[in-house]
Amino acid sequence: MSLEDLRKRWLSLDGGLEGVLALLALLGVLAVLQTFVLGQHFVIPTVLLMPTAFVAVLAVRGAAGQRWAQGVVLWLGVFAVAHLFFALFWAKTPRALLGEAFLPIYGALLVIFALLTRAYGKRNGLRLLLPETGDP
To answer: Residue 58 belongs to what domain range?
Structure first.
């Protein structure tokens, strides 16, 4: 799969969640570089590098059509939706930081992630719990 194919997939509904993971991986790499080069820390970047590599592998392997990676990406989307839903009611720090903008921002993020997760599951033929079976 070429970089152009990855970019097209990550910007579509078929691979939207993979695109979010690729963006998180890029931010992770930037965080590693920042803490290593500017912060002069050497242990913290290696701790940040582990989840960054994991997320990058999920994004690339999911885009390549590997079902195990797509299943993990789908579940990460479900966890993100649950996190945003519960944050609407119980998050204290983001509410304090964002003030009146908290509800519209988190509400929009919740709707976007819910739609992305649903579209990703549908377009890739994934199910959350039970695999699809044929007629008995």
So the answer is: 3-123
Which residue is associated with the tokens 């720090």?
93
Inter-CA distances, 86 with 14, 27, 95, 132, Å: 26, 25, 13, 30
Q: Output DSSP code: residue 64.
A: T
pLDDT digits (tens, 9 = 90+) for 90-126: 999 999 999 999 999 999 999 999 999 999 999 888 8
In a domain, 130, yes or no: no
How far apart (Å, rounded) are the C-alpha atoms in residues 42 and 96?
A: 33
What's the mean pLDDT when you consider all of the chain? 88
Q: Is 131 a member of any domain?
A: no
Q: What is the per-residue burial (b if ≥16 Cβ within 10 Å, else e) of 84-101?
A: beebeeebeeebeeeeee
**With contact defined as beta carbons under 8 Å apart, do 36 and 42 qualify?**
yes
pTM over 0.85: no
Cβ atoms of 99 and 106 closer than 8 Å: no
CA separation for the pair 41, 64 (Å, rounded): 35
- Beta-carbon contacts of residue 44 (< 8 Å; ≥ 6 apart): 35
